[in-house]
Design goal:
The complex is a heterodimer of chains A (406) and B (392). Chain A is an alpha/beta fold. Chain B has two domains: 245 residues, no CATH class; 119 residues, abc type-2 transporter like domain (abc type-2 transporter like fold, 3-Layer(aba) Sandwich). In chain B, helix 11 runs antiparallel to helix 12 and helix 11 runs parallel beside helix 15. The relative contact order of chain B is 0.11. The chains are: A alpha/beta (406), B alpha/beta (392). Chains A and B meet through helix 2, strand 4, helix 6, helix 7 and strand 5 of A and helix 2, helix 4, strand 4, helix 6 and helix 7 of B.
């Protein structure tokens, strides 16, 4: 007998929950504001960022040469510089003044100066200097010009050294060894081409999921509050008072929708734009499950703080950039001030981005990101409990007002 | 007649100040959020360039020379040796876990091969999945290893009786001197924050403008506002937005003073140019805000649109990834963001210390944004007077 009742009540609870899920889904699809955020932003942003950083690296940065040496050696230097993928010798300026003019007019982002003593210095065994002036408007200009000039100067210098050593009677092998007693080479194991998009876009993909959920759920909660007379979160006509059913029912609706948005973001987009995708489907799914759940409950917990449906934009939108910085994607996480590091752990995106980069871009296993994985479940639990109490408080206070009003 | 006109303008200004005082959201938007973001970004990267990044070593040689080399890696400004590994896969595991950003593998017989002029080979590994720390680790390892190799070369030459000066000229015949213009210490904080903070301000201004006008439509108070100026669109609009213009320009100059005076970020021109740049950004962003609510005179659509647009401004200012490096169809998008021109003007004055003539085009482009409210004037005026758009 008892068993039957239990089963019956479970079935009725399940029915209620499913009904709430369906009604929340209807709300989403009837609200153009939410649709813009969930599907407009959720689907459009990844595309636009994928396109923006499609080229990955900056190549052929235009530079000008000021060659006061006018020698075979200096011309050779310029040729080798032009041959690097990083820079392009677009101009040859007769003087520094004219080079500066080209720089001021933004025709070039760097000036390379070869002194008149260049060739003579090299031939007489003196050290010669080549000066490179580089724009710092973007770190990528500096990076390109620095690596090109450094490479050519060292490479040419190396050849000169070997020639000089061989002139002194050393064999080629002896000369090479004394010029570089240690041979070394570096290898980038992940993101080997140092692609800017390959590093940045995966972080944005994860962040977009959280941010659009908070905005969308914030609008939905604001609308719900605005539409009933007492400006409360839960419409009174709702016949199910079980808070648990409401929280689970609503979160299931958001979760279902974001399974699609998430798959698009994390599976389709990396594929389309040729971004790193070293993680297998199941590992990714197991990792993303608590991330989406944590984001959903986090968004539901926050939604109570937004009075009008518009306010969520004003109060929350600006957080996107700080969150990207606090995730450790740009700035090494160990180097963040303790205060901001602590703040960052309130947001699922911080560990979400960390874990995703390691799995997706560095082929880590789930065991390697166990700390992030556990943190996501902890956040899921904490924000679920928080969302539960926030909703319960809303329902109770709306009930009280209804009774008081009678 | 003239006095009556002026009164209308004043009345709208007073009405707006009343609204700003009454609703805390305006204080939050104008003062609290900008201040919070200034504090956040100014305190985020105190070192400017991250130092002592965690790296690892695999020492197959375990000799005096290899141990000395490890100490030298640890002594560089950029790296700190936190992991000693027995083999490659162990070290790689910690790289994947994010515990280290790179590692050096010293082969067995390293010392012996070095002493017997057998040119030992060293490999080092790093990850660019974390872009900044990965690049710095690469730079640090290359520098350290070439210094080490050069040092051995130098010792040999000194033993052969060459002077140090002679030897250096032989080892490195061509020495590159790199001069980063306007940011000599390659400070990431300077490079990132000088554009991000104005970007955040632009975003806040956009949203506030759309909200302040949109809320009049939502609560159907716009007719009353327009009446104060006898339905003069431009007068009503400028009077309403003027208190925000002034407040945001003050907040903008505040960050200029914080960055260029207190934090001593590079400033190679008169700071007044940056004040002007900031003021232009404020007015241009307000104009874009008016344009957006004019295009879609429903507050939630206007805000959604402004949000989508405002967040993209950071990428399209071109400070992180230069516009010329993007694919051509995307490049054109950069022209529609005031932050792009703000950034160009900033670059011209603060970094490069150039004169006005090289920034004139950018100033002109900024001014074009001011025409945007005129483009939507008919549509927005109708919406404000007839309130004929849905409330939700």
């Amino acid at each position: 007998m008892d068993n039957k009742v239990n089963i019956k009540s479970i079935i009725s609870a399940l029915k209620d929950t499913i009904q709430i899920t369906c009604s929340e889904l209807r709300h989403v699809f009837k609200d153009s504001g939410v649709l813009i955020i969930f599907f407009g932003a959720g689907l459009f942003y990844p595309l636009i960022y994928g396109l923006t950083y499609f080229n990955e690296a900056l190549h052929e940065v235009p530079i000008t040469m000021v060659d006061y040496s006018h020698s075979a050696l200096s011309r050779n230097f310029i040729r080798e510089l032009d041959a690097t993928p990083d820079v392009k010798v677009k101009y040859q300026s007769p003087s520094m003044e004219e080079a500066q003019l080209l720089y001021a007019q933004k025709n070039v982002y760097g000036i390379i100066y070869i002194p008149s003593s260049f060739s003579k210095d090299i031939q007489t065994g003196q050290q010669t200097h080549v000066s490179a002036y580089t724009s710092m408007a973007s770190m990528l200009y500096y990076r390109a010009i620095y690596s090109a000039v450094n490479y050519v100067a060292l490479d040419m210098g190396h050849k000169i050294q070997i020639k000089n050593l061989m002139a002194k009677g050393l064999t080629q092998r002896q000369a090479v060894v004394s010029a570089s007693p240690i041979w070394f080479e570096g290898k980038s194991l992940y993101n080997p081409k140092a692609g800017y998009g390959s590093f940045l876009v995966p972080c944005i993909l994860i962040l977009v999921l959280q941010q659009t959920l908070v905005l969308g759920i914030g609008i939905l909660a604001g609308t719900a509050r605005e539409e009933n007379t007492f400006h409360n979160l839960i419409p009174l006509q709702q016949k199910f008072h079980g808070t648990l059913r409401i929280v689970i029912g609503k979160s299931a609706a958001y979760f279902l929708l974001y399974c699609f948005v998430g798959a698009y973001n994390l599976l389709a987009i990396p594929h389309i734009f040729n971004l790193p995708q070293l993680v297998d489907f199941w590992t990714l799914s197991i990792f993303i499950l608590p991330y989406l759940l944590a984001c959903v409950f986090f968004a539901m917990s926050l939604s109570v703080f937004f009075g009008d449906r518009e306010v969520v934009f004003l109060l929350y939108l600006f957080s996107s950039l700080p969150l990207l910085f606090m995730s450790g994607a740009m700035w090494p996480q160990g180097h963040l001030p303790v205060f901001w590091k602590t703040v960052s752990y309130f947001f699922p995106s911080t560990v979400g981005i960390q874990g995703f980069i390691k799995l997706n871009s560095m082929k880590a296993t789930l065991a390697d990101v166990s700390w992030e994985y556990v943190m996501l479940w902890v956040q899921t639990a904490v924000y679920f409990i928080f969302a539960f109490f926030v909703y319960r408080w809303q329902i109770l206070s709306s009930e009280k007002r209804r009774i008081a009003n009678k | 007649m003239l006095t009556k006109k002026e009164n209308g303008f004043k009345k709208v200004v007073y009405r707006e100040i009343g609204l700003m005082v009454k609703h805390p959201i305006y204080v939050i938007m104008i003062v609290l959020i900008p201040l919070a973001s200034y504090i956040f970004f100014a305190s985020l990267m105190p070192e400017g360039l991250p130092e002592k990044l965690p790296v690892g070593v695999i020492d197959h040689d375990n000799s005096i020379v290899s141990r000395k080399m490890i100490r030298q890696i640890d002594a560089t400004a950029q790296s700190s040796v936190v992991g000693h590994y027995l083999n490659f896969s162990e070290a790689k595991k910690d790289l994947q876990k994010g515990k280290i950003y790179g590692f050096v593998e010293i082969p067995s017989n390293f010392e012996r091969n070095l002493m017997s002029s057998n040119q030992p080979k060293i490999w080092f590994y790093y990850t660019q999945a974390f872009y900044i720390p990965g690049s710095l680790t690469l730079k640090s390892f290359s520098f350290m290893l070439s210094t080490l190799s050069g040092g051995v070369n130098l010792q040999a030459r000194l033993l052969r009786g060459q002077t140090e000066r002679e030897s250096m000229a032989q080892i490195q015949p061509i020495a590159p001197d790199i001069h980063p213009i306007g940011n000599p210490y390659i400070n990431y904080s300077v490079y990132l924050i000088d554009t991000i903070i104005p970007g955040v301000l632009e975003l806040i201004i956009l949203l506030t403008t759309v909200y302040a006008i949109g809320i009049e439509l939502k609560y159907k108070t716009s007719r009353q506002w327009m009446k104060l100026t006898n339905n003069s669109y431009l007068k009503a609009l400028t009077a309403k937005l003027l208190p925000y213009t002034i407040s945001f320009i003050i907040m903008g100059m505040l960050y200029d003073v914080i960055l260029f005076k207190f934090l001593h970020y590079p400033m190679n021109a008169n700071i007044l140019w940056m004040f002007l740049d900031t003021a232009m950004l404020v007015v241009a962003a307000q104009s874009v805000g008016v344009f957006m609510i004019g295009l879609m005179p429903v507050i939630r659509d206007g805000l959604s649109f402004a949000s989508l647009y405002g967040v993209l401004a950071f990428s399209f200012s071109g400070f992180s990834f230069p516009i010329e490096g993007m694919i051509p169809p995307v490049q054109g998008l950069s022209t529609i963001f005031p932050l792009r021109y703000y950034f160009k003007i900033y670059q011209n004055f603060a970094l490069n210390g150039l004169s006005f003539q090289y920034a004139a085009t950018s100033f002109l482009c900024m001014c074009v944004f001011l025409l945007l409210p005129l483009v939507v004037s008919v549509r927005l005026k109708k919406a404000l007077i007839y309130q004929n758009y849905p409330k939700k």
